[in-house]
Amino acid sequence: MILVAGSANLDFVVRADHIPAPGETVLGRDFKTFPGGKGANQAVACARAGGVATHMLLALGNDAFAKPLEESLDGAGVQLHTVREPFHPTGTAFICLSKAGENAITVAPGANTCLRPEHLPKLTGFTHLLLQLETPLHTVRAYAQAARHAGVAVVLNAAPAQVLEPELLALVDILVVNEGELATVAQHSGSIAECLAQLNVPTVVVTLGSHGCLARHQGTLHWQTAFAVNPVDTTGAGDTFCGSLCAALSQGQSLPDALLYASAAAALACTKLGAQSSVPTALEVATLLQQQADTNNPTALAALRALCGLN
């Protein structure tokens, strides 16, 4: 059983030919709202794509934006531990989505800033606590400390990127980052391999978009190339990866198998619009894994290793 403690935002998404540069005005094609927020996205992925019992601790405002978030999480089977914040609005995110599937995101955290250490429920029965950085850092640290004392594995997705104190990293069992987040956390501007060398965390997973991902576990490297899909919207793909990875590990899968599963789920998430709405079901992930049983061909692996500075 997994507990996700983190953010929930209502995403306001405008589709346009390209993401505007500073000072540029771009005419969009259409506008929709979608349930989002890194924490909520990852909780939906744990439950829907991962197929595991999932709880979520979140803070919401007393406003209309909270309802679609609660409905989406409830629809995915996530059990909610909701902190109702009367003086702050529900978190929102404003997203410009290009026709190539890339995005630019600005978050107004709202009620997410109100999660406090005392809000954490009892950790009895949970195997993993999944955290992100869209809630106050001192709260994240307190939750990680409580999990460590309770014998619950701490999984931290260090996003949005920020420098982390050594005391927090010392509490993390599994750190999940993209390339930019890795450089920020490592406080190093070198290659991916060099950045990894700066981090003293038992397991570090680095997601690399269409190239795949890399994990270092107790000094051993594991590689997973990406599944081939036609991307429609990459929003939430990283969150789908995090949630699916955590779910697979909670079910006893090996790290290489969990990387494969999470990569398949993330690839499918790129083929639909929205964050939570794009999270695939466990059956859809299993079907893709049957269709593309082995993506680690020598050419793709060589390219991934070269990207990481390890050829």
Automatic annotation (TrEMBL):
It catalyses: D-ribose + ATP = D-ribose 5-phosphate + ADP + H(+). ATP binds at N178, T207, L208, G209, S210, H211, G212, G238, D239. One of its GO terms (cellular component) is cytosol. Its EC number is 2.7.1.15. InterPro entries: PfkB_dom (IPR011611), Ribo/fructo_kinase (IPR002139), Ribokinase (IPR011877), Ribokinase-like (IPR029056). Substrate binds at N9, L10, D11, G37, K38, G39, A40, N41, E134, D239. It is an enzyme of class 2 (transferase). The active site is at D239. One of its GO terms (biological process) is D-ribose catabolic process. Catalyzes the phosphorylation of ribose at O-5 in a reaction requiring ATP and magnesium. The resulting D-ribose-5-phosphate can then be used either for sythesis of nucleotides, histidine, and tryptophan, or as a component of the pentose phosphate pathway. Belongs to the carbohydrate kinase PfkB family. Ribokinase subfamily. This is Ribokinase.
